[in-house]
Design brief:
The chain is α+β, with helices and mostly antiparallel strands. The chain has eight helices and 15 strands. Among the domains are: about 5-60, no CATH class; about 75-180, Nucleic acid-binding proteins (OB fold (Dihydrolipoamide Acetyltransferase, E2P)), CATH 2.40.50.140; about 325-400, Winged helix-like DNA-binding domain superfamily/Winged helix DNA-binding domain (Arc Repressor Mutant, subunit A), CATH 1.10.10.
Length: about 400
């Protein structure tokens, strides 16, 4: 605090000098906000030899709130922002002994941003020795006591070489603005992310994974009504690939490395081949040989029916009807897809209003008049939007958007 305007009346009390009066409190306009409030509070107190106690000053400052006269603070949707990030073009660079001044252009309304990078005792600011390039800058918004414009105090400076970083910044700015205004989107409308490998997780060795089971060849055997023991011919019909019969060899004994005993698998007896009488040569068109009919058998036995249920046939209405996944994905792409044309037009009229302002029914009626609708239809559409949670009526004539509403597919 400026000692020329205050005098210590003790260890814990202050009083204004005689030359400072309440009428001349305008001279504190150049003070920082906190000092200006303290000086005005001291001057406004009754004159006393004891002065104003520091506890009284502290109580007064506590009533002013945390954002006391903070002229350089910025906010978005009633949320105070501490740090900002921008991707802008460096138009001009001015270097001084203690700091480097930058003139930036980010393409918004007004467009110009004044940035400052302090050297803090360093010999160089670390910036390129050129102009007219893009950079990604993060810093804080500050304003000095005697300054009339905000300045971006540069903390992180990174030159942009990939043009996609500019588009990424635009999407990030839109996402952050909508999140601050309407809240984060629910899980139902977020894009699902597949599982990723966690850090430190070992790779799976594919050599130890079990291999897929091999499907054996299907064997079809024609069974006659009775087997003839006098016929020396043996025939077996196999529908799989032709293979050469091999003699069965017993398995090799396997010794477990941890036990001294040896485990030996008992030999298995190969199945005996099926004996049937010889058949006449088959025609080239037939795929499988048909056994001759026996005098004692009338017809060959048909194979048993499959235990699996028959697949259900889809009706024509189910084929023509779109799938549920397509309907859900369409709603996610357009949250208003299930609304009528008049309801969508009303929402657009309310959205076109300035932020935070309500819209009356007359403005809505004029905006949707090209739809050739009546006043009753407009009233019914407003009631439907209110029931669905898209708009909030302030009274019978004014409506605003419910900003924290995210339509979902459910």
């Amino acid at each position: 605090m400026n000692r020329a305007n205050t005098a210590a009346a003790g260890q814990s009390a202050y009083t204004a000098q005689s030359t400072t009066t309440a009428a001349s409190s305008g001279q504190f306009a150049h003070f920082p906000p906190l000092q200006r409030e303290i000086m005005q509070f001291i001057v406004s107190q009754p004159k006393s030899d004891e002065g104003v106690h520091v506890a009284a000053i502290a109580r007064h400052v506590a009533t002013l709130g945390p954002d006391l006269g903070n002229a350089h603070s910025i906010s978005c949707a009633a949320t105070q922002l501490i740090k900002v990030v921008t991707v802008a073009q460096v138009v001009r660079v001015r270097r001084y002994d203690t700091a480097t001044l930058l003139d930036l252009e980010d393409g918004t309304t007004g467009g110009k941003i004044f940035a400052k990078r302090w050297l803090n005792g360093r010999d160089s600011d670390g910036l390129p020795d050129e102009e007219q390039y893009y950079a990604r800058i993060m810093g804080t918004i500050v304003r000095g006591a005697h300054e009339t414009k905000n300045t971006l105090n540069v903390q992180v400076f990174q030159r942009v070489t990939d043009p996609h970083q500019l588009f990424l910044h635009i999407l990030e700015a839109a996402f952050v603005s909508l999140t601050l205004e309407r809240g984060p989107p629910p899980l139902s409308v977020r894009r699902s992310v597949g599982p990723r490998l966690r850090s430190g997780e070992q790779d799976v060795d594919e050599s130890v994974l079990p291999s897929a089971p091999t499907t054996p060849a299907v064997t079809r055997v024609a069974r006659p009504s009775h087997a003839s023991t006098s016929t020396p011919t043996q025939q077996v019909f196999v529908s799989g690939p032709a293979t050469t019969p091999r003699a069965h060899t017993p398995p090799t004994p396997i010794a477990h490395p941890r036990t001294p005993a040896t485990l030996v698998a008992p030999p298995r007896t190969p199945p005996a081949p099926i004996v049937r009488p010889p058949t006449p040569p088959r025609s080239p068109s037939s795929r499988y040989a048909t056994p001759p009919s026996s005098p004692s058998s009338s017809t060959a036995q048909s194979p048993p029916p499959s235990p699996s249920p028959a697949p259900a046939k889809a009706s024509s209405s189910a084929i023509n009807q779109p799938s549920e996944s397509r309907r859900v994905s369409g709603i996610k792409r357009d949250p208003w897809a299930h609304l009528s044309a008049i309801e969508r037009a009303i929402l657009l009229q309310i959205f076109n209003a300035p932020s935070g302002e309500d819209v009356d029914v007359r403005t809505i009626t004029r905006g949707v008049s090209h739809h050739q609708v009546t006043q009753a239809e407009i009233s019914h559409a407003l009631d439907a939007l209110t029931d669905k949670g898209f708009v909030v009526p302030l009274d019978n004539e004014h409506y605003i958007i419910k900003t924290n509403h995210y339509p979902t597919s459910s």
